[in-house]
Write a structure and sequence with these properties.
single chain, two-stranded parallel ribbon, 54% helix, 3% strand
């Protein structure tokens, strides 16, 4: 989720070991270099990426340097990520709760059905909803 709207959810296959290499190749690159880059075309220097401090998210600082050099985006360094402050992350503050409430109303019967519902509900998040999250 960004101040300009949502970005696609990324499904991690069952039984995949999410280490830093996997996280960079299959999560960060598609998310930042494709989805976020489209939303912030011409203004990538205004993008600051906040994520939790899981070791797979913070262990390869070289990608952060490369991303800053090549595209202008900044990944907030581990040392500057507040510990246990869910209100600083729009996904923690809004996204996960919103999706959980929406799924509770729609009773999927299979894992594939859950994924389909998640994607549909996430696409329904309006720019107005996003703005309300960032304004609160």
């Amino acid at each position: 989720m960004t101040g300009r709207g949502t970005v696609p959810l990324i499904k991690v296959p069952k039984k995949v070991k999410v280490n830093s290499d996997y996280y960079i190749e299959h999560v960060l690159k598609p998310l930042l270099e494709e989805s976020v880059a489209l939303l912030y075309s011409g203004h990538l220097d205004k993008v600051f990426v906040h994520h939790d401090i899981a070791s797979s998210h913070t262990s390869k600082f070289s990608y952060a340097v490369e991303l800053k050099t090549r595209l202008g985006m900044t990944i907030i360094p581990k040392s500057e990520i507040p510990v246990k402050t869910p209100d600083t992350s729009s996904m923690n503050f809004f996204g996960f709760g919103f999706l959980k409430r929406r799924l509770h109303l729609r009773r999927a019967r299979t894992i594939a059905g859950v994924w389909k519902m998640l994607q549909q509900e996430w696409k329904n998040v309006s720019q107005e909803m996003v703005q309300n999250v960032y304004d609160s």
